[in-house]
Each structure stands twice: as structure tokens, then as C-alpha cells.
């Protein structure tokens, strides 16, 4: 494969994965068989010093992204390196290569046009967790859309990628969003070049809407200027179409009637959450992803009124099953992955053991509390034994044995004997070396040792 340009020493360009207004993403290859994804920013930097504003902004924003990776999150792509290309002096960030389809691909044939409720809840939780992790550190993604969230076929996690917009200057962002941004996912304020934490919340709501309905609220017809302007105007003024009606019309025809009925029982709290995310005014949305994620966690422990159906008892049981399944997904998928990633870390990125223990303890406690409240609120507490929770804890702790080999515990007497034997061995080695060199003192000492040994054996006889 011919190389379009050189990225950096030791980093081979294997060709473009996709291109866009925020830059292009290339498949890279490190020495050996390590593959990565390289985000290339289209504006070159000619002076690598702090006097250059663009270079300074690039370094500052990359530092934020690296901080995001200090505590690994299984739902955020890892940043491997950054710099300027050898030819063209284009800024780039190198990320891990996630093997698997993105959300937009999972909505195309042969897949159903929309996600099942179980999978929507999993995406809602994991994507909110990823955004909350970024917002906690002051990092705005700015380009959240369904093809920037990938499904990792090896871990089963959904991963947020492509932080290209986050490392652009305000001027670059404004130009990029106006000319080539994904208008179907952009918040109203982004059309003016603003990028707020609440802008990510709006785009998050669009993604959930798309997964539930099978399409975004306002579908772009072509990519011409007139079509883009029409979508922008809709985001600014138009009412968001009813997501349940769109979901009903886009249910796969080959699904059984029972499954169709079940998949229309969207939890009331989830509908309200999406509605709040898609408010026109930023101040009427969740303030940031931390508040969003907390709202999801709180709703998981409450029984809201289900969407009206013909069989109330079945609907209540379905909503209960969905809530409980989400808790299980969190415990088994996200927390286990977090533990593996934390214990796989290597210096200098590795965290102190006590920090790891504290972080994991907080996560486990949070989810177990939610599970207990949920069970109690639904009168299910008497059906769940303590052993069930202990089993979940065991699953979380299992990966630790792979990261830390078993310790060998020695008693003090055995330790002293081993140290003494080591001392004798060291003394004998030095003595024999000096005898070999015909050291007079060593020869006399050796003769003395031999005499003592002979006398001991003579006494035994």
C-alpha cells in the first residue's frame, strides 16, 4: 500500500479510515503488529514553540485528553501519542484501534433499524459514564454522534472515540462545525460556534433518540447547504417528533408480535431523560454529564409509571426486568472491565494500589446500593440471598489474580534459614575464588575448614 504521507517515526500510515470536517482518521501501525487509529487535524502548525498560539492550544488540549486516560475507562478510547506529522506539520493524536462496528453501522442491514431496549439501556449507561468521566476533567467532546461510538467486539463495551474537535481552537471548531459538522447531532448553540458541556448532553440525547426510533429526529436530505440550513433551523425551532411513534413504525416486521409489544414498553424515566437532553436552551438540559449520569443511576432504583399498555402487570414486570438487567450489565460488563484496565496499567501510568482499591470500592458500593434499593422497592428482597451479591463481588475480584501473582508466605524461621544458607553460599564462593587466586590467607582458611570437616567425619566413625 502506498503511503500518502509519513505520520511520525515508527508510526506507519496504512490509509484513511474516514475523513470529515474535523480532520481525517487513518489506520496506523506501530513496530510489530500493534494497530492504532490516527486523528489528523487539517490545520498545519509551523512553529513548535509556546509562542505559536495554535501549537500552544494543541498541547494544552492534548494534555487534557491524556489526563482523561490517567484513570482508564473502558468506555473511552485510549490516547497513545500525539505530535506533528513529519511531512506537512499537521497535528495528530494516535488512539487505540477499536475492533468493531460503530452505532451507525449497527443500525444498517442486516441489523434491525433500531436497538432493543436492553441494548439501548446499556448504551445509555456506558456512554453517560464516558461523558461524565470527560466532563469531570473539563474536557468537552463536541462531536458526539453515532459513528463516534464503537462497539468493541472483544470486550462487549461501547467506546467513545474521536476527540479531534476537542483539540481544535475555537475558530477551527466554528469553521469545522458550520461547514462539515454532523448537523443531525449538533446542539442549537453549536451553529453559532459555541461548544458547551450541555452541547454534549444534546448530542447524547440525539444518539439515544436514534437508537430508540431508528432514525434521528431531523433527517438530513443530501448534504447541500440548503439541506444543512434546514436541519439547523429545525434544531433551533421545530418540535422533536414523538420517539414512541417512530419506534412503532420502525419495528422490524419479522419480529414476533409479543416481542414488538415488549419493545414498545419504553421506561417512562428514559423518555423523560431524552426529552430533557433535547431541550433547545442549554440551561434547561442537564448541566453536565455528571448530573446526567447521576439521573440515570437514580432512575434505575425507582419504579416510574410505565407507558400505558393493555396488560399493566406484564408491563410492570417488563420494566422491573429491564432495570434489573441494567444493574447486572453494569456490574458484569463495566466494572469488571474497569478492574482489568486498572490492574493492567503500567508505570508511570499505574495508580497506587490504595487508589485502585478506593476507586473500585466506591464503584462496587454504588452499584450494590442501587441493587438493594431496587430489590426492596419492588418487594424482591426476600428472593435474593446475600450469596448473590457475594457472587457479583467475586466476579469483580477475579481479574485481580491475573494481574497480581499469588504471594508466597514464609514463616520467620524458614526465612532466617534461607538467609543463613545464602550467606554461607556467598562466603564459600568468595573463599573458593581467593583460593583459586592462591591468596595465602584464603589457603590457610581453606585448610582449616578441611581439617574441621575431617575431624567431624572421624568423630562420627
From TrEMBL:
Keywords: ATP-binding, Kinase, Membrane, Nucleotide-binding, Serine/threonine-protein kinase, Transferase, Transmembrane, Transmembrane helix. InterPro entries: Kinase-like_dom_sf (IPR011009), Prot_kinase_dom (IPR000719). It comes from the Bacteria. Residues 11-302 form the Protein kinase domain. The chain crosses the membrane at residues 414-436. The keyword Nucleus does not apply. Pfam families: Pkinase. GO terms for molecular function: ATP binding; protein serine/threonine kinase activity. This is Serine/threonine protein kinase.
